[in-house]
Amino acid sequence: MENWNRGKLIIIDGIDGCGGETQTKLLKEKLEKEGKKAKIFESPNYERPAGKLLDNFLHSEYELSPEFLTLIYYADFVDTKTEVEKALSEGYIAICDRYVTTTMAYQSVQGIRLEQIEQLLKTIPIPKPDIAIYLSISAETSAKRKFAEKGNLDRFEKDLEFLTKITSKYIENAKNNVYCKQEIIDAEKPIEEVAQEIYSKVIQIIE
């Protein structure tokens, strides 16, 4: 029997510096003001085992193959699976700051076929998003924002050629609604304007 009280899974996605963390918080606040229940989940979760391993990799402590990276990122999604499912079953709007749509962009540029990621989804299923919103910014904007934020850049943040390829893949996937319904929002705009556009897309899904 279908659970009519099931919540919705919303993904806020994009390259570093796109404002994902800020926008997930603003979306949660806006939804709660409207009387809706919302929870935020982050991928990777750097406090958990898989996330710690990924954090060390991003700061160049060691090298990992694209195949191994894909498995570790997916392990991070599986790690939060129970919490996300519980939130959805309780009628929450679960907002994920990145998700498997991120892996479909980043790791596919590194040579992992989409079919391989889809096989992981079949082998160990995770909750499917109701919508993924891609916050679009340029590679140059990404590097500028991240450097201003923390004064240094990790291996992906400082590789403008790689980030440019990632943005192209994100846009391609979003336009083709790969894996789930997707929307593209220009995140070069002011924060509040971006937040309003995100809310307008989300409200169509949850009402």
Structure description:
By secondary structure, the chain is α/β, with parallel strands linked by helices. The chain has a single domain, classed as P-loop containing nucleotide triphosphate hydrolases (Rossmann fold). It is 54% helix and 13% strand. The protein has nine helices and five strands, in the order E-H-E-H-H-H-E-H-H-E-H-H-E-H. The chain has a five-stranded parallel beta sheet with strand order 2-3-1-4-5, sandwiched between helices. The longest helix has 16 residues, at 160-175. The model has no long low-confidence stretch (mean pLDDT 92).
Which characteristics define this entry?
207 residues, alpha/beta, Rossmann fold, 5-stranded parallel beta sheet, 9 helices, 5 strands, globular
Q: Summarize the amount of helix as a percent range.
A: 40-55%
Q: Order of strands across the widest beta sheet?
A: 2-3-1-4-5
- What is the correct CATH architecture? 3-Layer(aba) Sandwich
Number of strands: 5
- Strand portion: 5-15%
Number of domains: 1
- Going by helix content, strand content and strand pairing, the class is alpha/beta
**For this entry, what is the oligomeric state of its chains?**
single chain
Number of helices: 9
Shape: globular
Describe what is shown at a glance.
The chain is of the alpha/beta class and 207 residues long. The protein has helices at residues 20-33, 49-58, 66-79, 81-89, 100-109, 114-123, 139-150, 160-175, 191-206; strands at residues 8-13, 38-42, 93-97, 131-136, 182-186.
